[in-house]
Each structure stands twice: as structure tokens, then as C-alpha cells.
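Agenda item 2: 2'-deoxycytidine-5'-monophosphate complex prediction
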Amino acid sequence: MKKIIIAIDGYSACGKSTTAKQVAAVLGYRYIDSGAMYRAVTLYFLDHHVALTNPKEVEKALVQVQLTFHVNSHGVTEMFLNGVNVEKKIRKMRISENVSPVSALKEVRVAMVDQQRKLGKDKGIVMDGRDIGTVVFPDAELKLFLTADMQVRAARRQQELLEKDNLVDLDTVIANITERDRIDSTRKESPLVKATDAVEIDTTHITIDEQVDEVLRQAVSKMMRKKK
Ligand code: DC
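Presented output:
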């Protein structure tokens, strides 16, 4: 079967990454978490006190940012910033609270989209984010747009944070997700919108296994169609 590109977009904490990871593992595809790239840039900008209001400073800083993905011994893809594993750091609330303004910057988006397209040039990739089906890969064979109720999203994100030893109360999680959704969907540069040809999946009442099965079913159907 021919390799395809699977683009998974949606609001924060709708289960995109969990679904994308498992779908990629079953298909033997590469999984790219585009949000991790924006999070790593945010970490660099915070640590180096980059002024977001100064485009020249932002561009200069971006030249210093080298992002790579490495698969660890458990088969889990981790984000490296300038050769250092930052996977744990980028999941902290400090980053979640600062990532949306950073990812709204044109200079940042241009640099990230360019790298993301290179990662997808040989297809066989599952990428999740906010603009994957609309901007990064507008010709992706399969586009999905995940949604879920806020309470469910917040509870899932709180659990994920807890598993990474970050104890955050539910109201803080809800406030963060709400604010990120607002910035991500109202920014000028590639705002989060559902691609007209994306299939919407509401994950509120379905399990991860059901989500994964649904995406796999759609992926196989696209792969078969591509073969003909
Ligand atoms: O997927 P995530 O929640 O880890 O993403 C973190 C932030 O990065 C998100 O709030 C908006 C930004 N992002 C983006 O602007 N475009 C993407 N393709 C992926 C993420």
C-alpha cells in the first residue's frame, strides 16, 4: 500500500497526540508532534528572554534553535532542543502558559512549517497540531479534526500532567486550555480552523481504542484508494 500523510488537528487536549502516536505505531509510520516543536521554541525564548514584540530578535533567536525528534528505547518519540532532551520540560505549565503567544508569531510559524514539510516529504507520517491539514499539508490524504467537551478534555489533561508528576488543579487546567484555544483560533497567522475536507471526530464519549480504530479504518480506506 502507498504511504499517505495523516493530519490530525483540533483544540488543546482533545486526544490528538495519544491517537496520532498509536495510529503511527500500528501503521509503522513516523509520528510528529508539531505542538512539541512550538513548545521547545517557547522554552528557548523564555530561557533566553527573547522579546516577542521584536521580530528581528525573534528571527535571530530562531537561527539558534535546532529541533530534532529521537525515538527512545521504549519506542516513544521525544523532543530535543539543541541536542538536549527537553521532553519533560516542555510539558510543564510554564510552557503551556506561554506557548500560544509564541506560536502566534509569523516568524516562528514560517520556520516551523518549513521543518514540518521536510519531515513529511516521504509521506508515511502522522502529524498532529492546529494547522496541519490547512497549512502544513493541505494535500494530506487523510485529515481529521478532533473535538471533545471541555470537562472531559481538562480531566484527561490533568491526568496526563499527574502521570508526569505535575499536580495541577482542574480550574487551572481549564483556564489554560480555554485561553490557548482562544489565542490559537483567533490569531492572524494560520488560526486553528477545521479544514473543509477534514473528518470531525467528537472524542467525548469514545475510548482511545475506539478513536484509534476509527482513524485506522479511514486511513486504510485512503491507502487502498491511493493504490488504484
Ligand atoms: O499540541 P500542544 O497542545 O502541545 O500545542 C501547544 C501549542 O502550540 C498550542 O497551544 C498552539 C501551538 N501549536 C500551533 O500553533 N500549531 C501547531 N501545528 C501545533 C501547536
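Discussion summary: The radius of gyration is 17 Å.
Owner for follow-up: CH.
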